[in-house]
Design a protein that fits this description.
3 helices; mainly alpha; about 85% helix
Length: about 90
Amino acid sequence: MEEKEKALEALAAQRWRIALQLTLVMMAIYFVFILLVAYAKGAMGHQLVPGLSLGILLGVLVIVAVWVLNWIYVRWANREYDEAIRRLRN
């Protein structure tokens, strides 16, 4: 039983590391975007094509980043975490 407990603790630690890493990546993306909005107004207002500024494009990319990071976590959880939990139950 002790071996399973150690494996479960290691798995929980791995899950925490993955979640923390993805959270830090998202925070970095978000804060860089906010800093650009605050300090690079001219650049963010630059029109790439009529009706589309750099700021709008980067804002959309921030949203896309959330979806991509969520997909990465779900894919990891489905492939690694769920399988490891399944092995520990048996």
